[in-house]
Amino acid sequence: RPMRLRCSSACCVPDEHEDAWAFGATLTALRAFGVEGGELSGLLDALMAVLHLGNVGFTAPKSNSEGSEPLRTGSTGASLERACELLQVEPEALSVAWCRKTMKAPGEGVISMPVTVTKAAEGRDALARHLYGTIFTFVVARINAAVSAGGDSNGKGSPAVGGGLASDPKGCEVLAGQLPFVGVLDIFGFEFFEMNSLEQLFINFTNELLQQYFNEVIFEHEADLYSREGIKWDPLDFPDNRVIVELIGKAPSGIPPMLDE
């Protein structure tokens, strides 16, 4: 069945022949880095769970238009059941986590309240993103372990992922400075879309911090050098994004710190 998370991407057009080839190449690469057997099965189960989570839908109960509950029929209901099977959780437990929130009221203890369909969908997407991020971290750690001087094909040093993917954090220790290395800095670009989310704000803020650091290292150090050598220069030529950085990140007047209050 079509997977919403995959079909919503504008990066590729689904092609069964190309997908089959890419899947085979991915399995070959994972096995080359020591991901086999139960670990490989657990990794694929987690990926399939992410895809099925994206197909889970919600509706408002007839008795509460401000509440929500997962759709249990059709393909969306089948995706819920399959995702829970892959994640080894009960559908009812996952439904409660998505569709209800708990609050501690003074004098009343902990109370449970329903959330809207929109909020339930946001919780579903947050779980899918977190799970996919954990998978990505695991794969990167295994690659780093395999290509490091002290690593091995078993990829020790990687974090745990659902399905039994766990490892020893002492697997790829290498003394700094023992071997020559090549460092590559690839700074991701600023993102501006027709609809920008919180992720774009933080990505662009990170870029501003990197740009500020670059300005300090390059331009401010150059300014000190010019001053020591008596070279005349116009300080107005110095690019400074400090105002932008402080607008976002400086406490207590920055936007996120104020919202956090």
Automatic annotation (TrEMBL):
GO biological process, one term: actin filament organization
Residues forming coiled coils: none
Record carries keyword Transcription regulation: no
Assigned keywords, A-Z: Actin-binding, ATP-binding, Motor protein, Myosin, Nucleotide-binding
Superkingdom of origin organism: Eukaryota
Molecular function (Gene Ontology), one example: ATP binding
CC terms in the record's Gene Ontology section: cytoplasm; membrane; myosin complex
Keyword ATP-binding: yes
Domain Myosin motor, chain residue ranges per copy: 1-261
Family, per entry: Belongs to the TRAFAC class myosin-kinesin ATPase superfamily. Myosin family.
Protein name per its UniProtKB record: Myosin motor domain-containing protein
Organism encoding this protein: Pyrodinium bahamense
